[in-house]
Design a protein that fits this description.
388 residues, alpha+beta, Butyryl-Coa Dehydrogenase, subunit A, domain 1, Butyryl-CoA Dehydrogenase, subunit A, domain 2, Butyryl-CoA Dehydrogenase, subunit A, domain 3, 3 domains, four-stranded mixed β-sheet, 12 helices, 15% strand, globular
């Protein structure tokens, strides 16, 4: 059993926080294309929500991953995708490797303020020519005495214009592409770090996203997370929490859209009856609710494996793939039932339609998830029969 009575109190506290401190302001933040990350994260940090499963000695709660999963699911009640995604970057994308592999010194400098909400973090992996193909990144961090000198650029960086530091993946040698990379914590105010532009996106409007350049940026080598050359491995491990978080954050969000569509179609009349009374509509809504519940079961099973210390690559990849596909299916179908109002920006369903499209791209595209699964099944071209 994944959740117990001990999860109820933090769940209720988070629900109250979302209702009072986030949802009343979402429309304003969406219109402004940004939300106040420092202000919001500090409030979340004060309540202990930015380090539920992080080590107690660095300010975390020291709880198991089921509490982080509970939080991800509850964030789906936020009436946009951008704010939950930004929170997820702080808790499950930029900091897992730091918490697990970082030295005490680097964790005190970067993890502690991320957990308290005193600093905003971002993750720097993707580049214009290397999104899902992580091995192909070009950003270099050349050793120079006790420092690294960093040159290159990163693209599509969530929290990028507001972040205090970036968990940066860079090439630290000329060796094999899977063993020449390192994760490095880089303060964003370091000389040579340039926020080139804030990106204009289809969805996730309230989340600031940036293109960032690094021009001879010098940082201490002690800012590296773990061993030099192990960054690709650390990032692949970190991806599993990111992908599981991404899938979990879809659950309640999809249910909200289905529930809102039920209420709207019940009241909307056409041809002498409500839209909901049409069998094709209420059957379809029931089918989509079933699909969401099946996705929940898959995510919970993966989370149980993660809590048990098992490798969740297979199930996390499946959950991420299914969440992306289902997000597109549900929001498209529900928008159709809203008719002309569904095409208006003033309705939540149109925002969800735009926001959910990212789930099949960010954190590894659907096609990458399928490649991962095919490799584990031993059915990629060139693989020998029975070899995963």
């Amino acid at each position: 059993m994944l959740f117990t009575a001990e999860h109820d109190e933090p769940r209720r506290a988070l629900q109250k926080f979302i209702a009072a401190e986030i949802n009343p302001y979402v429309d304003e933040w969406e219109a402004s294309d940004i939300f106040p990350a420092h202000e919001l994260f500090k409030k979340l940090g004060n309540l202990g929500f930015l380090g539920l499963n992080k080590p107690e000695e660095f300010g975390g709660q020291g709880l198991d991953y089921s509490y982080a999963l509970m939080m991800a699911e509850e964030l789906g009640a936020i009436k946009c995708g951008g704010v939950p995604m930004a929170i997820g970057v702080q808790t499950d994308m930029a900091t897992p490797a730091l918490a697990r592999f970082g030295s005490d010194e680097v964790r005190r400098e970067f993890l502690v303020p991320a957990i308290s909400g005193d600093q905003v973090a971002c993750i720097g992996v993707s580049e214009p020519g290397a999104g899902s193909d992580v091995a192909s990144i070009k950003t270099q961090a050349r050793a120079d005495g006790d420092d690294y000198v960093i040159n290159g650029g990163k693209m599509w960086i969530t929290n990028g214009t507001q972040a205090d530091w970036i968990c940066l993946l860079a090439n630290t040698s000329d060796g094999p592409v899977h063993r020449n990379k390192s994760l490095i914590c880089v303060p964003m105010k370091t000389k040579g770090v340039q926020i080139a532009r804030k990106l204009d996106k289809l969805g996730m409007r309230s989340s600031d996203t940036a293109q960032i350049f690094f021009d001879n940026v010098r940082v201490p080598r002690r800012n590296r997370i773990g061993e030099e050359g192990a960054g690709f491995t650390y990032q692949m491990i970190q991806f599993q929490e990111e992908r599981l978080w991404g899938a979990a954050s879809c659950l309640k969000a999809l249910e909200v859209i289905i529930d809102e569509t039920i209420e709207y179609t019940r009241g909307r009349k056409a041809f002498g009856g409500s839209i909901l009374d049409n069998q094709v509509v209420h059957f379809r809504l029931a089918e989509m609710q079933t699909e969401v519940e099946l996705l929940r079961s898959l995510i919970y099973r993966a989370a149980e494996q993660l809590v048990a210390g098992e490798d969740v690559t297979k199930l996390a990849s499946m959950a991420k793939l299914k969440a992306g596909r289902l997000g597109r299916e549900v929001t498209d179908a529900c928008l159709q039932y809203w008719g002309g109002m569904g095409f208006m920006n003033e309705t939540h369903v149109s925002r969800a339609y735009r926001d959910f499209r990212l789930t099949s791209i960010g954190g590894g595209a659907d096609e990458v998830m399928l490649m991962v699964l095919c490799k584990m099944m031993g059915i990629l071209p060139g693989q020998k029969k029975g070899k995963a």
